[in-house]
Amino acid sequence: MSVINNDDRFIELSSFEIREEDEFNEIDLNNFQLKLTQITEEFLQSSNISIKEDSQEFIKKISIISSFDSYQSNHPTTSTATVSKNSITTSYKNYFPISIPAIPWNPITPLYKMLNQYQPPIKQKEIQTKENQFQQFAITVAGGNGQGNELNQLYWPQEIFIDNDKSIYVADYENHRIVKWKLNSSTGQIIAGGNQNNPLNYPRDIIFDSEINSFIISDKGNKRVILYSDRNQTDQQILVSNIDCFGITIDQNGFIYVSDFENHEVRRWKQGDVTGELVAGGNGKGDQLNQLNGPSFIFIDKDYSLYISDRENHRVMKWGKDAKEGIVVVGGNGYGNSLKQLSHPRGVIVDHLGQIYVADQGNHRVMRWCEGNDEGEIVVGGNGNGNQSDQLNGPAGLSFDNEENLYVVDQGNHRIQKYEKTLN
To answer: How many CB atoms lie within 10 A of CB 209?
Structure first.
């Protein structure tokens, strides 16, 4: 009997009518096991297989000539394998050596299935995508002249927005103003706040609605979110009132999301809404998956998944569209400075590969995590609290420009730092 015929019998038996697990009875399972045993015995007695005892117990050396699904039928492959209770290793002549992960040996386990669990390494290599890397020494693009209210200074900046011309709009928190810094400029221009005509009170965040050519500002001290026209800088509209607003973001439909630090929730506002719709948290302060504790900055992706810096829980939560609870995607292992931990996270953004960047404020670094990983990696900073070009002091907001350069609001140093992307 040939190996190929045995393969066909295994496939025929394995594709027997699929049923729910609880519909199998003992007779079904006994019959199934009996057939597998019979085929396995015939397989081991096949004339195409030679077996000789090794000096070690329970180990067989097997030579097999077969064709695998991974190759064209006109490319026969000779393989040799050593089978034990613990693992299987094999090599393919004229191709490349491989090592197959440990597979428990069982006398009724089809050998062809054990071998076919392996996928050639070339397939794994083809799907790898390069990660962005960044210069470790930053360029100061706004502020950096000490704490103050002059046009070349910032005072405890919080968040930023960067337009297509690489102009940077800064929520200059302690100066109660929004300042625009053009590319390569040494001073900023006040576009909102800073005077009595259009007062702001500790602005925390700023985004831009391109559809209506207006800024949206989280005006924390006034407990409101306002719409501010870029064309008419005296024209402002209150969108949301009576809210302890922190972070804001906008989705592709123009709906606005606001984190409420005091009420431990995030709400979504559509045009004309009065109270907004609860989309995350809202179950009191806590660390359960349906709770938040002091949500700060937020980010929404194209799939309407919401990423929330859950500051006092030292984690980042991801809430899918219409979800009743979130999942922990960054941190969540308590306060600390290991690669598995965060300390009072602030800014959060996600790149086009789905990698999550977090301003780890208490650890003076920016971390990058891939969803599902147990730990992250330090992208920039992490060299202690300081004001050198490779150091940060309480980083807050994060942003990318249209060339994927990374910008960090270096809050304690009253400056905005640009980390240029490098080619791998």
So the answer is: 14
Query: What whole-number distance in Å separates Cα of residue 158 and Cα of residue 245?
Result: 13
CA distances from 169 to 281, 287, 349, 406, 423 (A): 29, 34, 17, 15, 27
CB distance 409 to 396 below 8 Å: yes
Count the neighbouring beta carbons within 10 Å of the beta carbon of residue 389.
Answer: 14
List Cβ neighbours of 297 (8 Å cut-off, separation of 6 or more). Answer: 159, 205, 246, 247, 259, 309, 346, 347, 348, 359, 396, 397
Of residues 317, 249, 330, the one with CA closest to residue 283: 317
Chain length of the chain: 424
The answer to whether the CB of 227 falls within 8 A of the CB of 182 is no
Whole-number Å distance between alpha carbons of 397 and 315: 16
Instruction: Give the whole-angstrom CA distance, residue 247 versus residue 307.
Output: 11
In this structure, how many other beta carbons lie within 10 angstroms of the beta carbon of residue 417? 26
Contacts of 350 (CB under 8 A, 6+ apart): 299, 301, 307, 356, 357
Give the structural domain span for 9: 3-126
Q: Which of 107, 68, 58 is nearest to 90 (CA)?
A: 68
Same domain? For 94 and 176 the reply is: no
* pTM of the shown model: 0.70
Mean pLDDT of 298-302: 97
Q: Report which of residues 32 and 274 the model is more confident about.
A: 274
94 has pLDDT over 60: no
Provide the mean pLDDT of the chain: 79
Q: Alpha-carbon distance 399 to 161, whole Å? A: 7
Domain end among 73, 106, 126: 126
**Gap between the Cα atoms of 263 and 230, Å rounded:** 31
- Distance between first and last Cα of the chain: 53
Whole-Å CA distances, 2 to 5, 33, 42, 48, 66: 5, 21, 10, 7, 10
Asked if 224 and 274 count as a contact pair (C-beta separation under 8 A), the reply is no
Average pLDDT of the segment spanning 401-415? 97
At CA 294, angle to CA 292 and CA 295, rounded to 5? 75
Same domain, 91 and 221: no
Domain count, the chain: 2
